[in-house]
Amino acid sequence: MLYTVIKKNSYQDSINLMLLTNSINTLQGVTKCSIMMGTNANKDIFKNSGLLTVEAESAAPSDMVIVVETEDEKVVENVLTEADKFLSDLAVKKKKNNVESATSLEAALEQMPDANLALFSIPGEYAADEIEKALDKGLNVFSFSDNVSLEDEVRLKKKAHEKGLLLMGPDCGTGIISSIPIAFTNVVKPGNIGIVGASGTGIQEVTTIIDRLGSGVVHAIGTGGRDLSEDVNATTVRDAILGLENHDPTDVIVVISKPPAKKVRDEIVELLHSLSKPVVAIFLGEKPDHHEGNVYLAHTLEETARIAVDLANNRAVKPNYLEEIEYEVKTPLPADKTVKGLYSGGTLAAEAGMLISEALELGGLTKKEGYILNVNGYEVMDLGDDMYTQGKPHPMIDPEVRINKIKEYAKDKNTGVILLDCVLGYGSHPDMAGVLSDAIKGAIQTAKEDGRELYFVGTVCGTEQDPQSYEAAVKTLKECGVLVEESNAKAVRLALKLKGIEFKEADKHVVETKVEKKELPEVSENVMELLNSKPRIVNIGLTSFTESITAYGGSTVQYDWKPVAGGNKTLIKILNKLSKIQEIDEFNNEVIEMMKNSQPFLVDVVPAKSVIEILNGKVILHAGPPIEYKDMTGPMQGSCIGAVLFEGWAKDEKSARALLESGEVKFSPCHHVNAVGPMGGITSGNMPVVVVENKLDGSVAYCTMNEGMGKVLRFGAFSEEVINRLRWMRDVLGPVLSKALKKKEEGLNLNVIIAKAITMGDEFHQRNIAASLNFLKEITPLITELDIDQNEKYSVIKFLADTDQFFLNIMMATGKSIVDCARKIISGTVVTTMARNGKDFGVRISGMGDEWFTAPVNTPNGLYFTGYSEDQANPDIGDSAITETVGVGGMAMVAAPGVTRFVGAGGFDDALRVSNEMDEICISNNSNWSIPTWDFKGTCLGIDARKVVATGITPLINTGIAHKNPGVGQIGAGTVRAPLACFEKAIIAYAKKLGIEAE
């Protein structure tokens, strides 16, 4: 039975998930398990392994998918517990590492403004776009990420070169910068040798041999394996060589390459001849018979290292570096016994295949289906090939594939020797020699029981400074029966010797070459700054890569990357194209400056029909985007019934419903007529509305007044009590407040009231008590001066004093006046409206004017009054999200820690987390409304729809919860998230407006 658990928007690095999967598969009761992100490529892996379920098929790329095959459903709980523990341990390790983390490249650069290198280990399908962003920020790039298209590599390396930056990679597994080990690499002593390598394990083999010979390396600049192809044309190799030529501490330059394109190889050799420093070069697959002037051409990686060490120590280069193999072979293996190579390092496998093929004249390498060589029973496998690592960790991390192959080859009667490497260093398994030893001993025993001799010959690629210890690994392998040699080349030679074949190397001498030295191009300041300083690295992806950096004196900040736009490639392309249009940021800044400079004043309270022309008839305003009466949820329909009864268009509920269903009453969103309405938002002509004027540009906004708590129209109640209160508000409250406000020539300055109240613990959606009291403080003296009935004065002041949420509606009109002022700039991606009607959540953005973008609304999460529960809750409703639109409400949760438990958010830490998260999707902060509990930072300002789509972080809204049936009213309070789809639609539409088509 297959069980699927989807963890929404929960990104984890693929390597971590592979290791987690391996751990889960050892649990009792688990038949098979796979844990991966929900990308299309991973779904294919699920399918191929028989684990693709309907739920997994529907997962987004940013979702973590756990599929468990088990006969016992209770096992799934154990799996989830183990998964949570594993991921928690990762978080603890990260914390112990004392590395600062950020959730965006911009935030990372704020923490480390002098960063000079971005280290990528993210899925290759997203890497190209992220690499380009780093280059645009002026960062050199080291890309461990692979699966970047050749086209993208060419384009990005050209861009890096033009910007004077180094792009190391993609698929660059190993590097050393200023003696700091980076990615999957060994700890090598500092020295005067600089290396440029289009081969990861090639660099590892050469650098570790250099270290064990007593010398050291200052730089090992990986370039990615395709750099010397004709398409890429050695862009990084050239720039790196020139950098080392100009780097004073580098005395010897080493160039390591997988088989290059001939034209590119010749051009590189020509460049090497123009250098002032001696160079050792190895082009794997070539068998040079001489050295050329100051360019020493090596055949094996060991020879490369030995020549480099002699040059670094001002010693003469020897004609031959072949050393005697001490192991005595008494009886060579029979002719039918062959050599099998099981390598975790691709370059080491290639070197082994090359040497065996040369010695036995097998016609060269095979390079097919994971094989480097497969001729006449001689087989060398690169177990790091994609076909073995799809959905599985690399064999340097996980021994499973190699252990299975050891067992398989041990049963093959033709196997005489099994060759293998054991690669140490950061990123590799903590004890690869130890975990292989049982399989090796078992294989030797299997052959022995079958009356056969089976040899294991190995090499350890590492140093004594590595986390695993070179000597310890060698000892472990020897103890389980492996013949261990000091280099891969020497191990291959021993394997051949066991077959009775002596490997020969002809002497090489220097041949003076007449090459005209050319003037070398200048090296950029960026490259030289990188080479002349300790790297300052933004680590983007695998957190464990920070360990070697911090351990050896580098500095780093962790960017906790996850796929932009939830991994939606169409949206990623759109966002990337929008990011290149500088004018969008300029327009956005104009919009938020309008918001920031707004001057809202409460100037009057008037009958709605006196200022909203369409209400002079049977018209009702409602909250949210457009909706018809038949589609309204219970509370909004209940509010409509109440409005009909209040206006006297019907005498009872039944006739009011009949009228509404007849179509005689017309409906319009409040937002279409400069108004907003709480919850149902229902506003009719004779209801009094507050009038807020934005004196920055004269924008005017309206909102009905707060009715207090209990059974109220805004929550769908329409009893006689509700209607009588509305009448009192129409006949007494509205007129009294109007008269009082007229005593203030300009009205009440709302910015002042808001600024005071936010320092007193209001966030202006769920908590308005301070603002309501401040309003009462301002309005009461004006009311007492009025020449009206004392009972009316008392009733109004008493109502205002009893209504803690009275200011909410004023705040809503304030927000509307601010956004309507800003909406006059019809450009950019700032969110200018958020509203909900119980069915749809709607947003508007500055660049699309009045157009609505909608998606099904969510139901709030929160706390319920006694006797009520979540299944009775109405989906989210109301225009009050205008408060979040201008940066208060849920956006300013940290301002009102007292309200967090009421809305189900927890405590202060949760409030702080929410506001910090909301800050990530905003452009600026409003210094007019500073929050003491947020180090006096201003409220969030300018929700950027691009940031919402990119991060997947949607605005959090504080809200009341209405009963889904009409007439019941409020049953709780909580929070709700705006649906992401609204913002995605808005961004797609704006891109189309700018001529960017969604693919």
UniProtKB/TrEMBL annotation:
Q: Which SUPFAM superfamilies match?
A: NAD(P)-binding Rossmann-fold domains (SSF51735), Succinyl-CoA synthetase domains (SSF52210)
Q: Mention one GO biological process in which this protein takes part, according to its record.
A: tricarboxylic acid cycle
Alphabetical GO CC annotations of the entry are: cytosol; succinate-CoA ligase complex (ADP-forming)
Q: Which residues form the CoA-binding domain?
A: 189-285
Give residue ranges for domain ATP-citrate synthase/succinyl-CoA ligase C-terminal.
342-496
An example molecular function term from Gene Ontology annotations: succinate-CoA ligase (GDP-forming) activity
Q: Which domain of life is it from?
A: Bacteria
Q: Which PANTHER family match?
A: PROTEIN FDRA, SUCCINYL-COA LIGASE SUBUNIT ALPHA
Q: Which protein is depicted?
A: Acyl-CoA synthetase FdrA
Organism (species): Clostridium aciditolerans
